[in-house]
Design a protein that fits this description.
This protein is an alpha+beta fold. It folds into two domains: 28 residues; 116 residues, no CATH class. 24% of the residues lie in helices and 29% in strands. Strands 1, 2, 3, 4, 5, 6, 7 and 8 form an eight-stranded mixed beta sheet that branches.
C-alpha cells in the first residue's frame, strides 16, 4: 500500500520527467552553437586595425590545447573547424598577441553560443555572439563582448544584444 509521501514522490518524479524530456531535446541542458552564414559583411583588416575595435587595444589568439579536448566548447566548435578564440586580454602567457601586420579576414559568418540552463543559473553564464575570422590560416571566434564597437554590421537574423 502506498503512503501519501510515496504517492507525492511518484507524482514529482513523473512531473520532472515531463519537464526534463522536452528541455533535453531543446538543448537546454547542454550549450550549443548556431551558425549564421554570411550574416555580416566580409572584411579584410590588418591586425592593428582589428585591435582598434578591441576593449583593450590588444588581441590575443587562444588555440585549443590538449586539456581543452575534454571541454564542451571543444566538442561543439572544433567540428565546425574552429581553432580557438580571440580575446582582448591575455590570461595565459602562452597566448600569442595578434601581430599588427597580420592580415585578418572577417568571414561574414556569425555564431551564437547558447549557454546551457546550468551555466545560466549556476555560473552566471549567458549567450554569446561571436564573429568568425581567419588569422594565421586558422579560423577563430571573436566574442562581441571583447569589442568596443563592431568591425562590420550584422544581419537582422542575429540578436546583437546577446
Amino acid at each position: 500500500m502506498f503512503r501519501a509521501s510515496s504517492l507525492a514522490l511518484c507524482a514529482a518524479t513523473f512531473t520532472l520527467m515531463l519537464v526534463a524530456a522536452p528541455a533535453a531535446q531543446a538543448g537546454l541542458f547542454n550549450p550549443h552553437i548556431d551558425k549564421y552564414t554570411q550574416c555580416a559583411a566580409t572584411t579584410r583588416l590588418s591586425g592593428a586595425d582589428l585591435k582598434s575595435y578591441s576593449k583593450s587595444g590588444s588581441l590575443y589568439l587562444y588555440e585549443w590545447s590538449a586539456a581543452d579536448r575534454a571541454s564542451i566548447d571543444y566538442d561543439i566548435m572544433r567540428p565546425l573547424g574552429i581553432s580557438g578564440f580571440v580575446f582582448s586580454s591575455r590570461t595565459s602567457p602562452e597566448w600569442d598577441e595578434l601581430a599588427d601586420s597580420e592580415s585578418i579576414l572577417i568571414t561574414g559568418n556569425l555564431y551564437v553560443r547558447d549557454a546551457s540552463i546550468f551555466e545560466k543559473i549556476l555560473g552566471g553564464g549567458s549567450d554569446t555572439l561571436l564573429y568568425e575570422l581567419v588569422a594565421e590560416s586558422q579560423r577563430y571566434l571573436l566574442p562581441v563582448s571583447e569589442l568596443r564597437r563592431l568591425p562590420t554590421s550584422a544581419c537582422a537574423a542575429v540578436d546583437l544584444h546577446h
